[in-house]
């Protein structure tokens, strides 16, 4: 009896299932405005990105680490003279980001509902545990997943472990996401299919070249096109 080529499908969360980066951009603009008397916007943005990259190994991905990086950047930009009132405002906008309502992207629910029951669906996302659990609960999508994995980082070993635990191994699995660096390239390295769904806003840290030569790489315009990709594997 011929085995199905695909039994397990993994989905990224932020900017794949729901909006995320646009709220970070709005928060960053608020932060830039707070420091407008001390530096121009390009300098503040560049220093903030440097702080975020530097702090990933300490704080991981997520809003709390982003907030701490904003505070660190404010201290650096003002050479240690940032007013306590500005620190308080940074904390406020960080809390606002943590409480922002979830906005699911087009075609998400219909796609998940169509796949649920026919494939093992697993949510694989980076970020703060409490915040990702909150967003999943508010999205109303939780019952459509067979498993949820909130991880500190995504690499080939992450996908091998998860797809072996939840499904039949990475070779019979597919990962869907908007980040080539986190969702697609390491999933391909693990032996899975990788379906890239670009989002108009993607954090600069996640930018890498498309692996167009990889035989298991696919690219779609939105999740509504996923069904035809899966059908093409049969």
UniProtKB/TrEMBL annotation:
Keyword Hydrolase: yes
Region forming the signal peptide: none
Gene3D superfamilies: HAD superfamily/HAD-like, Putative phosphatase, domain 2
GO terms assigned for molecular function: hydrolase activity
SUPFAM superfamilies, A to Z: HAD-like
InterPro entries: HAD-like_sf, HAD_sf, PGP-like_dom2, S-2-haloacid_dehalogenase
Pfam families linked to this entry: Hydrolase
Domain of life the protein comes from: Bacteria
Entry keywords, A to Z: Hydrolase
Full protein name: Putative hydrolase of the HAD superfamily
Organism: Rhizobium lusitanum
């Amino acid at each position: 009896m011929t085995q199905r080529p695909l039994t397990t499908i993994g989905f990224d969360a932020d900017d794949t299932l729901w909006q995320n980066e646009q709220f970070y951009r709005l928060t960053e603009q608020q932060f830039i405005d707070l420091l407008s008397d001390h530096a121009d916007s390009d300098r503040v943005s560049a220093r903030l990105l440097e702080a975020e990259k530097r702090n990933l190994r300490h704080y991981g991905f997520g809003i709390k680490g982003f907030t701490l990086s904003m505070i660190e950047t404010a201290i650096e930009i003002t050479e240690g003279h940032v007013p306590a009132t500005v620190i308080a405002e940074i904390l406020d906008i960080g809390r606002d980001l943590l409480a922002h309502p979830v906005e699911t992207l087009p075609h998400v629910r219909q796609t998940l509902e169509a796949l649920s029951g026919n494939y093992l669906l697993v949510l694989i996302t980076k970020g703060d545990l409490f915040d990702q659990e909150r967003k999943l609960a508010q999205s109303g999508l939780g019952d459509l997943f067979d498993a949820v994995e909130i991880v500190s980082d995504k690499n080939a070993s992450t996908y091998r472990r998860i797809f072996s635990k939840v499904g039949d191994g990475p070779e019979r699995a597919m990962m869907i996401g908007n980040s080539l660096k986190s969702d697609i390239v390491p999933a391909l390295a693990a032996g899975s299919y990788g379906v890239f769904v670009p989002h108009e806003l993607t954090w600069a840290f996640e930018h890498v070249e498309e692996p167009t030569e990889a035989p298991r790489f696919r690219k779609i315009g939105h999740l509504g096109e996923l069904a035809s990709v899966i059908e093409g594997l049969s």
